[in-house]
Amino acid sequence: MVVEYTAEFGRLDDVARAIVYGSRGSFLKAFANAWLRADPFNKRILREAWEEIIEKYDLVQDLREDRARMAVER
């Protein structure tokens, strides 16, 4: 089975990178690391859980706020 890398995976990768390099807790960092290390086939397996975590902890909003703060600091 061939699994293509999608733009959606790219968006989820961006959130994961922000978590890994940010100040979140160890659970979120561990899951984000697992997501980043997964191949496309395993990302399809992890995707639903990762999207639920992103929604539960409002991580996309945190990513936007981090980017806005970094832009102001420059």
Automatic annotation (TrEMBL):
It comes from viral metagenome. This is Uncharacterized protein.
